[in-house]
């Protein structure tokens, strides 16, 4: 007994000493990593605040010209319009995708109907068809045959269905006890009432996770809007950024950096606010 | 449809699938719920996919309005073209680099940030924010940072060593720059998913390793890395898809596919080539054939994911 105690006491300080050193090393490594990851953004932040004559100098002190710079791109380069367009499109697609995939998952989990497995396979299979690969035919369909080239429809409607969303909600519903649905049915509750009063309140994390993924995905889209959107009045902000850089021969870097900062804020905000839901919504744990 | 498909979820209990009675009855109702999703998928994914297949067998020119059936000769032309083969080879090199560097750095940083240290939450948030940045924003930031005259990197290099590399004109440097930017932009995503997997590791196994006298390095390589293999497998596929498709915005803003070396621009990757052929050169049939070849590639990748991804590569647990 006594011997054991002595040994424990002797071992303790060396372990905690080693631990303290390893914690210090971890902090050092993380600080370096965080700094390296943040450098491009920090640089953009500083340059976005400097007046025109300082932006192209090595000076790295923040200035007070952020709103002057932003003002230039916001009105003169149409950034305000682009931001509004991106917001309209992103919110429409996120809301639409959530509704459509919840309804589809409801059908797959709580109903038995002919060809159910095949239909589900057809939905999942679309994961193999990225829009980028279909742009030639999709362009022909949307612009020539549907005539949507100058409308929001062109960048909203093709993205309303979601295999990812349907799959995520289906997995989530399958883990909700069936007895809840049985009880709802016995109480005379239809599927839509059951959805509203039972399933949705139990799905907030999944909805949050999907909202983050879809918001970031839609807001950050580039190739399809670049190709299909001919009207500058309806263009999204990502393609707008490219136009900011192109203006004439001389790029107004302070203004461009202010524009880039503002462009990245909405997805960053959504991501930061919903980060907990994002992590929880994915069935990564055993205790799902 | 999204470039980020599904997380590696536990397979749904198979028994409930087949034997349990349906919760709700109705013949029309489930189809009514499915109709919007199926309609959008049919019109905007399946229909264009089939049309892409048929277009790939024609030589057509939108501008001239010509259209002629040529069978498989578009494919033959592509596969025998030195320029296209160069584009394919440099795409594979780019994808391999982005995946290896992205997963390696992502895992290392997630491991550091998951350790029980003070301020862990702040470190984590600061490491994952690039997830929310778009390829276009990333391209814009890097374009300024590496601008040969006014960029910060060359101002620093110039004052320290007296060199000012032409980052976007030199083939090797441009390729490296686009790769580094893509890894940087993808890092947040990898860290997020590795962090989630790390917090869900069975604590007992790690404690057992510590009691057995394993040091941090040993328990990382011998215990953590094998336990994370399902997540690594999932990230392998999402990163391949990311490098293949999401690189477009980055390339378009940073280099426009250039600079030319050999037969093609060194940062012209498969998607960029597809875009150029479809909307710059108006070679619709060729572009459709390129899309079909890439569809095959994605098909093989997705099948591999379903084949191996659902299998749990765990040891123990």
TrEMBL record, chain A:
It is found in: Cell membrane. It holds the Pfam family BPD_transp_1. Residues 83-274 form the ABC transmembrane type-1 domain. The keyword Zinc-finger does not apply. GO terms for biological process: transmembrane transport. CDD domains: TM_PBP2 (cd06261). The chain crosses the membrane at residues 21-46, 87-111, 118-139, 151-169, 198-219, 253-274. Keywords: Cell membrane, Membrane, Transmembrane, Transmembrane helix, Transport. Its main location: membrane. Coiled coil: none annotated. One of its GO terms (cellular component) is plasma membrane. The keyword Ion transport does not apply. Gene3D superfamilies: MetI-like (1.10.3720.10). It is a multi-pass membrane protein. Belongs to the binding-protein-dependent transport system permease family. This is Sugar ABC transporter permease. It comes from Deinococcus aerius.
Automatic annotation (TrEMBL), chain B:
Coiled coil: none annotated. One of its GO terms (cellular component) is plasma membrane. One of its GO terms (biological process) is transmembrane transport. Keywords: Cell membrane, Membrane, Transmembrane, Transmembrane helix, Transport. It is a multi-pass membrane protein. The chain crosses the membrane at residues 28-47, 87-113, 125-145, 173-198, 219-245, 285-304. Residues 88-305 form the ABC transmembrane type-1 domain. It is found in: Cell membrane. PROSITE patterns: ABC_TM1 (PS50928). The keyword Transmembrane applies. The keyword Methyltransferase does not apply. Belongs to the binding-protein-dependent transport system permease family. This is Sugar ABC transporter permease. It comes from Deinococcus aerius.
């Amino acid at each position: 007994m006594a011997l054991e105690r002595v040994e424990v006491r002797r071992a303790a300080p060396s372990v905690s000493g080693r631990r303290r050193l390893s914690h210090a090393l971890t902090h050092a490594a993380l600080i370096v990593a965080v700094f390296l990851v943040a450098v491009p953004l920090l640089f953009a932040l500083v340059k976005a605040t400097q007046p025109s004559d300082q932006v192209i100098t090595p000076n790295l002190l923040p200035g007070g010209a952020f709103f002057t710079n932003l003002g230039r791109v916001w009105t003169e380069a149409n950034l305000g319009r682009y931001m509004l367009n991106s917001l309209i499109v992103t919110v429409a697609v996120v809301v639409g995708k959530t509704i459509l995939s919840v309804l589809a998952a409801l059908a797959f989990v709580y109903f038995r109907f002919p060809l159910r497995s095949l239909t589900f396979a057809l939905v999942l299979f679309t994961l193999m068809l990225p829009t980028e690969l279909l742009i030639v035919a999709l362009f022909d369909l949307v612009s020539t045959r549907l005539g949507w080239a100058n409308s929001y429809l062109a960048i909203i409607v093709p993205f309303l269905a979601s295999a990812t969303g349907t799959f995520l909600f289906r997995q989530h519903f399958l883990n909700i006890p069936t007895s809840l649905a049985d009880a709802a049915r016995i109480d005379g509750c239809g599927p839509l009432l059951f959805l509203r009063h039972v399933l949705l309140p139990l799905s907030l994390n999944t909805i949050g996770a999907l909202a983050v993924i879809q918001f970031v995905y839609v807001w950050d889209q580039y190739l399809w809007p670049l190709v299909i959107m001919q009207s500058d009045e309806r263009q999204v902000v990502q393609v707008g950024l490219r136009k900011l850089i192109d203006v004439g021969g001389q790029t107004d870097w302070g203004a461009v950096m202010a524009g880039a900062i503002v462009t990245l804020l909405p997805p960053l905000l959504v991501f930061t606010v919903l980060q907990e839901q994002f992590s929880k919504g994915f069935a990564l744990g055993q205790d799902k | 449809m999204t470039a980020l498909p599904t997380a590696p979820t536990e397979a749904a209990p198979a028994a409930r699938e087949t034997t349990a009675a349906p919760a709700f009855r109705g013949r029309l109702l489930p189809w009514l719920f499915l109709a919007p999703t199926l309609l959008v998928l049919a019109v905007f994914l399946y229909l264009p996919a089939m049309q892409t297949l048929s277009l790939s067998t024609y030589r057509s020119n939108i501008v001239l309005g010509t259209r002629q059936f040529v069978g498989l000769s578009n494919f033959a032309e592509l596969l025998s073209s030195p320029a296209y083969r160069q584009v394919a080879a440099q795409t594979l090199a780019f994808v391999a680099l982005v995946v290896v560097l992205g997963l390696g750095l992502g895992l290392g940083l997630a491991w550091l940030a998951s350790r029980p240290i003070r301020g862990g939450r702040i470190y984590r948030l600061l490491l994952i924010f690039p997830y929310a940045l778009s390829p276009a924003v990333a391209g814009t930031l890097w374009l300024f940072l590496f601008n040969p005259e006014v960029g910060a990197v060359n101002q620093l290099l110039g004052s320290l060593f007296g060199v000012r590399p032409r980052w976007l004109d030199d083939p090797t440097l441009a390729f490296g720059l686009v790769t580094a930017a893509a890894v940087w932009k993808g890092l947040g995503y990898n860290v997020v998913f590795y962090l989630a997997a790390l917090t869900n590791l069975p604590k007992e196994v790690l404690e057992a390793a510590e009691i057995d006298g394993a040091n941090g390095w040993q328990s990382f390589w011998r215990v953590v890395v094998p336990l994370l293999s399902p997540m690594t497998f999932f990230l392998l596929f999402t990163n391949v898809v990311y490098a293949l498709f999401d690189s477009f915005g980055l390339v378009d803003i940073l280099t426009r596919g250039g600079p030319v070396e050999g037969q093609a621009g060194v940062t012209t990757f498969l998607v960029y080539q597809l875009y150029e052929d479809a909307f710059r050169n108006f070679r619709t049939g060729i572009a459709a054939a390129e899309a079909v070849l890439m569809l095959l590639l994605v098909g093989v990748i997705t099948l591999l994911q379903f084949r191996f991804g659902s299998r749990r590569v765990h040891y123990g647990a």
